[in-house]
Amino acid sequence: MPEFRLTQISDTHLGRRFPGLIANFHRVSEHIDADRPDLVVNTGDVSFDGPAGRDDAEFAKGLHDALPVACRYLPGNHDIGDNPTAIGPAPKPPVSAAHRRQFCDIIGEDHWSFEAAGWRFIGLNSLVMNSGLGFEAEQFDWLASELSRTNGGPVALFLHKPLFLNLPDDPETPETSIRYVPQPARARLIEMFGTIDLRLIASGHVHQRRDFTWRRTRHVWAPSAGFVINDSRQDRIAIKEVGLVEYRFQPDSLEVRHVRAAGQVDVDIEELLVQMGGEH
C-alpha cells in the first residue's frame, strides 16, 4: 500500500487588506507546488473575518483553489464565530448557524472522513461544541457512526482547537476556555475515542508550533501560516513562528516534519492591528 502524504496549513487569516498574510500564503503555495502532497488540510481561520461578510471567505477560497493539489478545510473562530465559554467573557462573535452555512457554501465541508494508507482521517468542526446549535448533536452522531467503521485501524483527527494544553482535565481559566476544546465536549470526545487507535490529533488556533505525545496519541499544533502573536499579547507555550506541517502516513506508521516555507516572514500581529486601525 503506498504512503499518503498530507500537508497541514492553519490560521491563514486571508483578506484582501493584509498584503503580508497574502505574501506568506504565496510562499506556502510555492512550497506545496514544489512538494506536491496528496492532500492539503487547512485546520481553520481560513479567512480573516468570515462573520463580518462574504468577501474574506471568497478571497481565501480563491487563493486555495489555485493550489495544485486537493484541499480540505475545517472552520476556525474567524470563519464561523467562537464557542460559548463556561467562564470569562463570551467571545465575539459567537458561533452561529448562519456563519457555518456561509463557510460550507463558500469554502467547503466543515467535517469529513476518509481512508488512505490504512488510516481513517476525521475532520471535526470544533467551534460548534457546547454551542447548543442543532449541528452540534448531528456531528457527534455522525462521529459515532464513523468511529464504528474504523475496524481497529489507526485514526488521525484534525480540528481547529487543540484538545487540551497538557492533560485532558486541565482546569479551565478565562484564557484557556477559548484556546482549547471546551468542557464537557472535550471529555465526550476523549470518551468516544477511548477504544479507538487514535494516533494523531492535529490542530491549529494557538499560533504556536508544538509537538508532544500523551499516552498513545501524538498532538501536533500547526503554527499560523500567516502571523505570530507577540509575548505581550499571548503567553509563550511553544515556538512562535509561521510555517506548516508535513505528514507521511503508512499502514502502521506516521512521520511528522515541521517546515517553514522559503520566504515566509514572521508578520507580527501589531502590523495587522495598524492595518485594521483598531484592536484585534
Task: Summarize the entry for a quick read.
The protein has 280 residues and is α/β, with parallel strands linked by helices.
Describe the protein in words.
The chain is of the alpha/beta class and 280 residues long. It has one domain: 4-Layer Sandwich (Purple Acid Phosphatase, chain A, domain 2). It is 26% helix and 22% strand. The protein is built from seven helices and 13 strands. The strands form three sheets. It has a six-stranded mixed β-sheet, with no helix packed on it. A five-stranded mixed β-sheet has the order 3-2-1-11-12, with no helix packed on it. It has a two-stranded parallel ribbon with strand order 10-13. β5, α5 (134-147) and β6 (154-158) form a beta-alpha-beta unit. The longest helix has 17 residues, at 19-35. It starts with a strand and ends with a helix.
What fold name goes in the CATH topology slot? Answer: Purple Acid Phosphatase, chain A, domain 2
Q: How many DSSP-defined strands?
A: 13
Strand neighbour order, sheet with most strands: 4-5-6-7-9-8
Largest sheet: 6 strands, mixed
Summarize the helix and strand pattern as letters.
Answer: EHEHEHHEEHEHEEEEEEEH
Shape: globular
- Runs with pLDDT <50, length 5+? none
**Helix share bin:** 25-40%
Distance between the termini: 46 Å
Return the CATH class: Alpha Beta
- Number of domains as seen in the coordinates: 1
Structural class: alpha/beta
| Rg on CA atoms, Å | 17 Å
According to CATH, the homologous superfamily is Metallo-dependent phosphatases
Number of helices: 7
Fraction in beta strands: 15-25%
What's the average pLDDT? Answer: 94
CATH architecture descriptor name: 4-Layer Sandwich
